[in-house]
Specification:
The complex is a heterodimer. By secondary structure, chain A is mainly alpha-helical. In chain A, 74% of the residues lie in helices and 0% in strands. Chain B is mostly helical. Chain B has a single domain (24-64, 77-225), classed as Four Helix Bundle (Hemerythrin (Met), subunit A), CATH 1.20.120.80. In chain B, helix 1 (24-53) packs parallel to helix 7. The chains are: A mainly alpha, B mainly alpha. At the A-B interface, helix 1, helix 2 and helix 3 of A face helix 1, helix 3 and helix 7 of B.
Chain lengths: 139, 226
């Protein structure tokens, strides 16, 4: 079977190893920062600060995605048409995420305002159920 | 004085060549990964919507706070999942090295890096299996949620349903990735790629493996961090 002609564009040998090591370090650092932020968030009660930290974690996550897709999956070195084929639908996907999170939030607000059963349920503190382990220990 | 010496721009769509300058199989793998990204995306968006629609939700730092051989009564959030994340990232790095060695036609380096990637994948699956077993022993499963919301109210089974479904679907992808990598290893060792003159198949398997790693980055952030 005839393969359609593909022009091979190679970068110099030593550059590639360096690139791989650099990207690995960047990914590790980003992960460590994310985890550090996750740990700090545990001690913070202020909802505004928590939301800000979550926002930073999301941005770091997108940066990691950029490095994995661009360098490990080699997309950065492909031609523009292929890059756009991947990037444009994912950019539209961001709207999908926003729209549905907004929807969920709206549902919560309307429910809390108009549905007395749900309001009561979401404000009733429940005794912590004995876990299976604790029940076994008591025997 | 000729004004026609400028190089004409490459005509990508006139036939006789791949319009994206990649081989057919690689392009199809990208298209498949896009479809899989949408599937995972849909699952995660459903999770996000449900969470945003709930007044309160279990605190992941209270639910996911153990690791194997942990001393009784201790509480270590984020530790185990960090280990899992690093395992998968490192297995991605060994996969990149395998693909690079393939471009240089170095059969033994390809084989070694594939083996390391497979070991990484199996290690991740073992960790995930431990996490599932541990949670199940605490009473969690599809339809069973022993955890309370962060504010003390009754929680929904949606929490455990989403967790097991999404991490299960991802784990299934890791498993199939390990199987594919094993097949790649066998093909490498039996000189199939040497005979073909290229290791392009390893590149395609590499794309799949990196996708699996990428999905984990999103899943771990959504369930454990935010």
């Amino acid at each position: 079977m005839e393969q359609a002609q593909v022009i091979h564009m190679d970068h110099p040998h030593t550059d590639v190893k360096k690139e791989i090591i650099n990207v690995t370090i960047i990914l590790s650092v980003l992960t460590i920062i994310e985890l550090a932020l996750g740990f700090t968030m545990m001690g913070i009660e202020n909802q505004g600060t928590r939301l800000a930290i979550k926002g930073i974690i999301v941005i770091l996550m997108l940066a990691k995605a950029f490095y994995i897709v661009g360098y490990f999956m080699h997309l950065k070195h492909e031609i523009r048409n292929l890059i756009m084929t991947i990037v444009v639908p994912l950019a539209i996907f961001i709207w999908f995420i926003t729209a549905f999170l907004y929807e969920g939030n709206s549902y919560k607000n309307l429910k809390n305002r108009y549905d007395p059963y749900k309001v009561e349920r979401s404000h009733t503190i429940v005794e912590k159920k004995e876990s299976v382990k604790e029940a076994k220990k008591a025997e | 004085m000729s004004t026609t010496t400028a190089t004409a721009p490459t005509k990508w769509w006139n036939g006789g060549r791949s319009p994206f300058n990649v081989e057919y199989g690689k392009l199809m793998m990208w298209y498949f990964l896009m479809s899989d990204a949408f599937t995972f995306g849909a699952f995660l968006i459903a999770y996000g919507t449900t969470r945003f629609a709930a007044t309160s939700w279990p605190d992941p730092n209270k639910v996911f706070a153990s690791y194997p051989l942990m001393p009784e009564g201790s509480h270590a959030p984020l530790v185990f999942v960090s280990i899992m994340t690093f395992i998968l990232i490192l297995s991605s790095v060994t996969m990149v090295l395998a693909v690079q060695a393939g471009k240089e036609m170095k059969k033994n380096t390809v084989a070694i890096n594939l083996i390391l990637t497979i070991i990484g994948g199996l290690a991740f699956l073992s960790c995930q299996a431990w996490e599932w077993t541990h949670l199940h022993h605490e009473g969690a499963w599809w339809g069973m949620n022993p955890f309370m919301n962060a504010d003390g109210t009754q929680s929904t089974t949606g929490f455990t349903n989403f967790f097991f479904t999404i991490t299960g679907f991802h784990g299934f992808h890791v498993f199939s990735g390990v199987v594919i990598n094993c097949i790649m290893l066998i093909m490498t060792l039996t000189d199939k790629f040497e005979k073909r003159g290229h290791y392009l198949m390893i590149e395609k398997a590499g794309l799949y493996w990196h996708f699996v790693d990428l999905v984990w980055v999103f899943v771990f952030t959504c369930f454990y961090l935010i």
